[in-house]
Amino acid sequence: MAAFSDQAFKTRLKDLNQTQQSIQTISLWAIHHRKHCNRVVAIWMDQLREAKDAAQKLTLLYFANDVIQNMRKKGTEYQSDFKAVMLEAFDNAATAARLTSNDKIIKSLGRLVVVWRERSIFDEAFLTKLEQGLETIPAAEAAPQKTAASLAATSATRSFTVPPVSPSVTPKTPTMDNGGESMPKRLKINSADFQAFSGKSKPEAAKTAHVPTSDDEEYEEVPFVNGETQAPKLETLLRLVQKLQSAPSANAAIRSKIAELPAVITDPAAIDRISDRQEIDRLIGVAKEGLQMVVEYNKELNQELLDRQAVASELARQLAYHRKIIDDKERLREDLANQISQRRAFRDKLAIHVDSLPDMTGTSSFGNSYSRSPKSSTNKNGSAK
């Protein structure tokens, strides 16, 4: 990989766009040069200040997000350095977005904060400061950014009493058989429990919009930034890899021929010393053949370079796609675990409520005493008993 230099990094940032490949390429380059993290963050901040387009500022923030998340398991260098300038970066991007009335940029900045909070990238106090800079978002637009946890908390505050049993089954003031104790008060079960029991509650781990990122170890964001939704095909990757098996750079025969070309044809001073016309003509013929061979080999090497770039891009797409599947499955697992926990809690509350109902088994004999016919029985002579 190319050595680090300020100018090289500035050039890369100027060419940065919101496609997966662009963000991933520069992110991996920055991670590779993590020992220069101070210069990387400083140059990144300078470029963000100089960017005139709010969308380009957002792209630079996407790049920072990608680097921060991918470095979580490798070190905290970038996290601490980016945190030191992130408040200014957010304010700069939000201000540029408001000047052009670009509400989509503001929403995207809010999504970044949501993702960082869910994955504990920064502490809550710092994330709150970032959100305060976005408080000018209209209430109607900020509403969708509420997390499922806050919605569940609001729902949980509403409770209702379990409806009483029908009077035809239980008297209004039932008493126990033993000692005439009054019934215990009916339990209150909140609406969140009933929603959990009916399967209609929104789990805390709600699906939220994500910001693009990439990671060679843990790809944790939606990778298809440019609207790509189709799953990459393994056949495409296999075909590209098979093509590299016969790469020109591994062609020992052609490399050997080029190496065997006489050195004199590349040395003007040596050619000037040749006085034999026939020798010069021979060298001219060798040079022409060598030139044609080198030109063809150069074309093949250029094509190989394109093929290798295609393989790298396809590998990134495959990695991003399968990481996204893993993330979706993990969220589903958390949702199911949350629902199971809610249902168990509701089951326990329901069991307590059932135990609090009156014991009506003792009233069966009392009811049977009135089951005889009201008519008096008579003896065989017809006289009343």
Can you describe this structure?
With 385 residues, this protein is mainly α. 60% of the residues lie in helices and 2% in strands. The chain is built from 15 helices and two strands. The chain starts with 5 loop residues before the first helix and ends in a 17-residue tail after the last helix.
Mean pLDDT: 73
Beta-strand segment tally: 2
Query: Order of strands across the biggest sheet?
Result: 1-2
Low-confidence stretches: 137-229, 375-380
Shape: elongated
Order of helices and strands: HHHHHHHHHEEHHHHHH
Structural class: mainly alpha
Largest sheet: 2 strands, antiparallel
Task: Give Rg in angstroms.
Answer: 38 Å
* Distance between the amino and carboxyl termini: 115 Å
Précis, in short:
With 385 residues, the chain is mainly alpha-helical.
Q: What is this structure's SSE topology?
A:
Elements: H1 6-14, H2 20-32, H3 37-50, H4 54-70, H5 77-99, H6 103-118, H7 124-132, H8 139-142, H9 148-156, E1 159-161, E2 188-190, H10 191-198, H11 234-244, H12 252-259, H13 268-272, H14 277-355, H15 363-368
Antiparallel strand pairs: 1-2
